[in-house]
Amino acid sequence: MNNIQKIGLTLFVIGFTIWVATLSLGKYTLTEGILSDTVNVKKEHYDLLKAKAEPMFGKSYSTAFEFSNDFSKIQEEVNEELRKAEKDDQVIYDNYAFIVTKASSEGPITEHTFLWFWLSFGLAIVGALMYIFPNNRLLPGIKNDHIYHHPATSRGWIGILLGTFLIAFYVVLYFYPQYIVNWVLLVDPISEALNGGPASQWFLYGFLYTLCILIMGIRMIIKYRHSPYEQIRSVSVMFFQTSFAFIIPEILVRLNQPYFDFKNMWPLDYDFFFDFNLNELLSNGTLGLFMLVWGIALFVLAVPIFTYLYGKRWYCSWVCGCGGLAETLGDPHRQLSDKSMRAWKIERYMVHGVLAFAIIMTAFVLYTYFTGQSNIGPVSSYSVRAAYGFWIGALFSGIVGVGFYPLMGNRVWCRFGCPLAAYLGLVQRFKSRFRITTNGGQCISCGNCSTYCEMGIDVRAYAQKGQDIVRASCVGCGICSAVCPRGVLNLENADPHSRVMVAPEIMTGNDMPKIK
Prior knowledge:
The protein is mostly helical and 516 residues long. It has helices at 3-21, 32-37, 43-53, 64-84, 96-104, 108-111, 113-132, 157-175, 181-186, 188-195, 201-223, 228-254, 275-282, 285-310, 313-316, 321-328, 341-371, 381-403, 405-408, 412-416, 419-430, 448-452, 459-465, 479-483; strands at 27-29, 60-61, 105-106, 375-376, 379-380, 434-438, 489-493. The strands form 3 sheets. The chain has a 3-stranded antiparallel beta sheet. Strand 4 (375-376) and strand 5 (379-380) form a beta hairpin. Keywords: 4Fe-4S, Electron transport, Iron, Iron-sulfur, Membrane, Metal-binding, Transmembrane, Transmembrane helix, Transport. Residues 434-462, 465-494 form the 4Fe-4S ferredoxin-type domain.
């Protein structure tokens, strides 16, 4: 590590520390005016909350935790009284704690937002770039230098701390966003510039998501600069995340149009067929109808056509935001993916199980939408979609999918949980021109390919047998080819009938050489 990198690392740590410390700044004071002027509080809810919230009016709190907890208790008291009075239709399900806490915030963050933004995000960005750019001076090419020994990339103490932070962040983001209102306030000016309104926790998440892909995407371009394929692919995921997933949807909101990510599709976008989304699209005229048709065409036509031509890599490695974050932010942990036969078997059952769950849930949702009946027999469609949203949409894709990068590798969600990856994989496995060809005679058994495979494929075992790699899980990232010192592996599109398919039972644990 040279001096520039040391300075960069120092700046990054300072910026990150300040960012975390901003959560403790300021105070929170609720007034009747704030409660009445917070437009997201519905009139019927305001009347119920005001009477209970009067003891909080004018009281100053030093932390968002204390303030939001008191307000949440008030909301729960109101709901309890409504339930006792058998007025279940009036129960408040909205999370008012976040918007009220944010509106009640005052102090240095609200008074000097730009200053604190640059002291936190600004220093961290500059520091990260200063740490990354000097790597351009190293000789191009990939070596397995200390990746199994560094505490950040080998499930060491740095990796455990990072994983703990990511898991905690997702838990708070999904379930307790009121605790991070200061972080949301930091990006308020960016939200105002894009969509014309204040930032939400989801805008903060989109901003952080995009920022990570951009910064770590630069790292990918430098690290794999010997491979034009990897450089173009890195630029692709950076472009699609920044434009289609972040900027364009926010601009649509500013133009009073539905928030819509044109690259996202069902079943990954599992709420696409939810009643609120369908109603919003259908009520927005020609553009809304186009969005609906576009979303349906993506999974009905684009998936089979493009997957037949190019394999699932056209989406999973070039377009998808989940894959983009895994390829960039998660790249330092790709070697942690489990390559065992046991993991492969679990993977196949789990990912196809989630796909089946998504199909059943969507069928329930559409049945309710068209018939108006919420129950199919004893089962409520609302309970099914709530279960999917909690277990798959929140816990699996977010908390486990990203939080476990430093523990289980960077494609945990893609391997074990993504229903779209399962759908794409079925097409790729049985009806696609894509394959990775091998030249076993040139293989020197260095193990680079298997080490760097993020999808848990023991690539070396295929290479040594001279067998084409035709796996439903392969996302065609091409890293195995990029790190091969002998050019043994090549990504190709050819006649699907000429592909050599190997059944899982043929590749036994004894057949697959172990990586040492």
